[in-house]
Automatic annotation (TrEMBL):
Major localization class: membrane
Subcellular location(s) of the protein: Cell membrane
InterPro entries per record: MATE_fam, MATE_MepA_subfamily, MdtK-like
Listed transmembrane segments: 26-43, 58-80, 101-124, 144-162, 174-197, 203-224, 245-270, 290-312, 333-357, 369-388, 436-454
GO molecular function: antiporter activity; xenobiotic transmembrane transporter activity
Keywords: Cell membrane, Membrane, Transmembrane, Transmembrane helix, Transport
Species of origin: Roseburia hominis (strain DSM 16839 / JCM 17582 / NCIMB 14029 / A2-183)
Protein name (Swiss-Prot/TrEMBL): MATE efflux family protein
Membrane topology: Multi-pass membrane protein
Coiled coil (UniProt feature): none
GO cellular component: plasma membrane
Lineage: Bacteria, Bacillati, Bacillota, Clostridia, Lachnospirales
Superkingdom, natural source: Bacteria
Amino acid sequence: MKIRRKHPVRVNHLGSDPIPQLVRRLALPAMLAQFVNVLYSIIDRMYIGNIANVGDIALAGVGICGPIVTMISAFAAWIGNGGAPLLSIKSGEQNKEGASAILANCFVLLIGMAVCLTIGAYLCKDALLVWFGATERIFPYAETYMRIYLIGTVFAVLSLGLNQFIICQGFSNLGMVSVIIGAVLNILLDPLFIFALHMGVRGAAVATVLSQAVSCAFSLYILFRGPVPVKITFRGYSLPVCRDVLTLGLTPFLIILFDNVLIIVQNVMLKNYGGADSDMLLTCNTIVQSFMLIITMPLGGISGGTQSVLGYNYGAGDTARIRLAEKHILKTALLFCTIMFVFAQWDVSAGIFVGLFTQNAAYRSMTVHFIHIYTLSVIPLAVQYALVDGLTGMSLVCASLPLSFFRKGIYIALAVFLPIRFGAPAMFYAEPLSDVVAAVVTTIVFVTVVPGLLRKREALLGKHIEK
């Protein structure tokens, strides 16, 4: 007689499955999920850019909204990426009660942050949009999109934050499904609301909110009723647990927040030093940043989706598996970035991508040129993501946070200096220059500092076992 499984879902055993297969099974779904997640913004921008008569200016307006959208993602990452590694470590220690308490506290933190963000963003959105570079022509489109998008803040925060707790328990396929459901729905709803119902920019925002709500509902179902071993409960609330989550999550939060600062600096410098071409440069930058999302988001999926392997084995004290896993994570990231480098530098593929957003020949030619420049150092970027996110996955914030700040600091300095000295278009060289320097420094720190930290972990767990 056949016995049917209650949950026919692949379970990844983080402490015993072969590392190469484990990394592949976790990295690929997370990478694909983030790639599909990029479609949230790219599809919106693609359709908006093709709105008759006002597409180019409306596209720049949505680009100005980018920092606020990114800020919301940063707060979700603060809790999701702060709590997920801790849950993995507790699971590695076979402490299910501790893992359950972490998830319960993170759920409350996510809801609280979503409410605060919604209120704060509504009160400040007009001033923020102007500060972020919105010109008089662009502002109406940016304000319209943002006003509606903020209604779904709670859905965005919960869907992004809770997805990490699905992935870190070895269910990367379900994490991927959560993202894909929302992205596919967004793709279907965008043309309906933007063109069929003639809602324009408002339609793009409505489609995004509805899609995020569905993703959120799926994540909640999995963490309340699904096959994951650690589910959301309403007990074990603790200020020390919240403190630990917020401390560890500070690194990914600040990384994303500083990405926000970078976008703001870019827009302000292009606006102030672009002269008569400032609106055109802002539109081109929106498309360039959309292109970068198809690189950085899946790359973050590879490095973030495999953090559970590092965290679990760090909790178990199996440093040999940690070293092997980090090696395979880095190889996967380098392979992905090499493919994307070729894609970015090839005129045909870059031109096709830009053509999705605008049919204006001048805009297309300029944007393809900027993409070529901006992606010159995409391959070294793989080193930065794999090593820094790996450190965060093992809760080694003392090393990951300074390395993240270092790269962002170089970028901001260059993004300010280059336009002043060489003109607004020179700003696009800030990315490749900072990526090369950061990759070199990160590699040096990783190979000199991390082996000692792992030896300390082995010694600490060895003493506990003896006792």
